[in-house]
Amino acid sequence: MNYHFFVGNDNGNSEHDLVIDGRLIQQPNVNCRVDELPWREEQAPESFVANLQDQLVVTIDSPAARPGMYYVGKFALESGEIIDNLQIGIDSKSDMDLPIVNTLAQIAAAAVQKAYEEEKAIPSEIDLEVDMATALPVTQHTDETSARFEKRFTSGTHHVTVHLGLRRVAVRIVFPFVKVVPEATPVIFTLQKDASGSWREGEIFADFAETYNIGKKFNGSFFKDKRILHVDIGDGSTEYPITEGNRFLRQFVHGSHHGAGYAIEEALPEFNRLIHLPDSPRQFFSDVIKNPNHKYHARALKTLRRPLESQVKQIVQHAKKQLTKARNEIDLICVYGGGSILMRSVLYPYLKEACDEREIKLLYIPAEYAVELNAMGLDAFVHGKIYEALKSKAEQPA
Which InterPro entries does the entry mention (predicted)? Predict the structure, then answer.
């Protein structure tokens, strides 16, 4: 079986968000290497397909990563094994195996699901060609690091065995072209257009339109020529790029090692003490925070309040630095990313005051869109004319 996928791939420190073949997939960005399958008994392979991302076990044989068997995402997090994750502020994504392994695993799983959907049978092998856009933090993104990260995907064939119980599906993945862009910049595409290419409208802008009395007919065309300071708050870093229309202004590259992950790591020892655990991973704490019904939710929030305030103050200072550098010639500050959800109640008033003083508008993306904006933007980019032109140029003989 042969497929061609377009993939927008946002490898976050805490969460992995990908749009594969038009479908959004969100998983904890963790994995663990194991020596054997978790299943002993034969189970119907079909029973794995629907929720494959939540029970993802793969064997990787790739020129870009250490070979072996891996539990990926939620299955790794819940396995009790020692997990590998991105160390915030320490790891360089372009050099690590984790983003490679998890990307290959998620793409292979999506291919198995597509094949089953179309053929109503489990294939034995799949050949897959992938066009992909992904990103690196602006603090790590240089011509050299982006070229190195691209090459890890494009140099050779990646062999992924997807395990459906004791049944195996061999997926061969080739990337003819990959483009690595600075994180946060793809969001300009998402703010303007929806998946069908029309001007974006709807709930994502409801609060903004009401705050500034812009009217019900408001849509993404508003952003097409605006100068925007992005505040993209992740787990381990916050990016503050400035864009104008569809252009990324290279002279304003700035990122800082602040984010929700630092607050969580600071809160984690006290949280573990309160729930009588010797240790627990950062992603477990994140899951507890996201779930208001979790029995430990109130305790997690309590331990997080003070560390969060300290991170917020740092982020506000860095945003103000960027405004000063741009001489306040900014139309709009746009805030999003997984960390922005946790920080909203503390961060919004600080930024709103700074914006009002400088006659700048503040677009604080609602929680239900905040995490996926980068992946959606990367998906829009990989389908767009700029990507097409870059790919054509790369294919021309030197």
Answer: ATPase_NBD
